[in-house]
Amino acid sequence: MSLPSGSQVIEPEWTVIEESERSDNYLLEQGKTQLPERVHNITVTRNNLQELRDIYDGWSTECRCEFNRKFGHIGLLLSTPIDEEMLRAAIYFWDPSCRVFVFGEVDMTPTLEEYAALLRMPSATSGKIYNKHDAGYGFKRKLAKIMGIRVQALEASIGNNGENEGIPWYVLRDFILENPDNPVTVNVFALAIYGLVLFPKAWGNVDGKIVDLFEQLLDNANPIPVILAETIRSLSHCRINGQGRFTGCAQLLTIWLKSHFKCLHSEFKDPNIGDRFPIEEFNMSTWPGPISERAWMENLRRVTAANVIWKAPWMDHPPLLYRCANYPWVPLLGLWGATAYAPALVRRQTGSLQFMPVISKLDTFGFAYGIPGTSDRIFYVCEAWKNIHRVAAGAYTDLTTPGYPEWRSNRLRGFVIPEPFEPERNDETDDLYEEGEMHYEAAMNWGS
C-alpha cells in the first residue's frame, strides 16, 4: 500500500481511541483522562538475569566488544541496578494525556534521542522503523531462522504465554551454552535480552512479538521507537488502572530518571567523546539511597527547575525529532499497540527555551493491535515517519516563555497525584531508608 506521488499524510479521524478495554486505552471525558484517586499496587519486579550476566561476563573482551558493535550496549543493562521504590513513586506522577512526568514545577519524559544516546545501537539513526505488518511468515519459522535450526526442533519447547506465543528462556540458554562457537549464538543471546530486559512482558519467556521485531532489527530497523512506545504504554496502563506491573525496560527508565538528578560521585565522561559507555558509567557512579517510595513521592512533589539536570550528563547535542508529517508530535509503534509523545513539551531537556507547544489530539492518539482498522492505522503512522521534522538542540537553558507557567497550570487543572499503596516494613528497613533519605536530602536540596 502506498500513497500517490506528492501526497500528504492526512491524519484520519479514527486516530481517536474507540476501544472499550480499560487496560489498553485512555479513559476520556471532555478531553481529560480520568485517573483513579488511589493507587493500590504497582510492581516493577524483573526477571532473574543472573544466568544472562554469567554468560555475558564469561565472554572475552573482544567478544563483548563485537556484541556491542552489533547490538549496542544492551548487554550492560544486565548489571544495571533497578530502583523499584523510585520507579513506583514516579509512576504516580505520570500524566497519560500528555505522556510526561509531572514533577513539581517541571514536566519530563524520556526522548528517542536520550534512549539512543544510552543504548548506542548502530541502527538508532536508521529511518526504518518497526512495522508489525512486515512480519511475513510465522513466528516459529522466524525463530528457527534466527537460531539456525529446523522448525520441528522448536515444537516441543514453545509454550503459549497468554495470547502470545513465546519461547522459555531455558531453551535459549541451553542453545547458547551448547553452541558457543556458532555465529548465530550472539543473535540468540541478544534476542534473550530483548525478551527478558527490554520487553519483559512474559515471565521467563521471550514473547513471540519480540521475534518479529528482532527479525526486522537484523534488517536494520530502528528499535528505539518501539522501546519508548512500550515504556509509555506501560506507564499509562499502570497509572490509569491504579495498579499493574510495569513492563517497560526498568533499567533504562532508572538510568534516565536518576541521571536528571544529582549523584554523589559521577563517573560520566565528556559526552562529546566518541567511544563511550554511558550505561557502564552510570553503573559505576555512586547514587544516594535506598530511599522509600513515600520519600521519593515527597521529593518529586517539590521538584523545581533548579533541582533538575536538564541535559543528562551522557547526552551530546543531537537534533531533536519533534514531529512527523502533519502530526504536531511523534507517533510511536510498539509491539502490542501504538502511542505518541510530544518532545516539544520537554524542550528544556535539549537545552532549549520552553514555550507553549501544540499538543492537539495527543491525548486521544493510541490503539492496541488487533482491533478493526489496525492495518490502516499502522500504515498511516509508517507513512508519517517518512516525513520527519527535526530541530537543532539549543544552548543550555532552563528558561520558559512568559505565558508558559500559566498555560501549564491550566493544563494540569484537575490533575491529582494519588496516595501510594504502603506495604508493611520492619524496623531494619526503616533505618536503611532513613539513612538513604538523609544523604539524598543533602545532595539535592529539594524544593530550594
Textual characterization of the structure:
The model is unreliable at 1-32 (pLDDT under 50). The chain is 36% helix and 11% strand. The termini are far apart. The chain has 15 helices and 15 strands. The strands form six sheets. Strands 4-5-6 form a three-stranded antiparallel β-sheet. The longest helix has 18 residues, at 224-241. The chain is α+β, with helices and mostly antiparallel strands.
Question: What is this structure, in a nutshell?
Answer:
This protein is 36% helix and 11% strand.
Write the layout of secondary structure elements.
Layout: E1 28-29, E2 32-33, E3 41-43, H1 50-58, H2 61-71, H3 84-92, E4 94-95, E5 100-103, E6 106-108, H4 112-119, H5 139-147, E7 159-161, E8 164-168, H6 169-178, H7 185-198, E9 205-207, H8 208-217, H9 224-241, E10 243-245, H10 250-259, H11 278-284, H12 293-301, E11 320-324, E12 330-333, E13 337-341, E14 367-368, H13 374-384, E15 388-391, H14 404-411, H15 427-444
Parallel strand pairs: 3-10
Antiparallel strand pairs: 1-2, 4-5, 5-6, 7-8, 8-9, 11-15, 12-13, 13-14
Helix pairs in contact: 3-12, 5-8, 6-7
Mean pLDDT: 83
> In angstroms, what separates the terminal alpha carbons?
56 Å
Broad shape: globular
Query: How many strand segments?
Result: 15
Low-confidence stretches: 1-32
Instruction: Give the biggest sheet.
Output: 3 strands, antiparallel
Strand content: 5-15%
Q: Which structural class should the secondary elements be placed in? A: alpha+beta
For the CA atoms, what is the radius of gyration? 22 Å
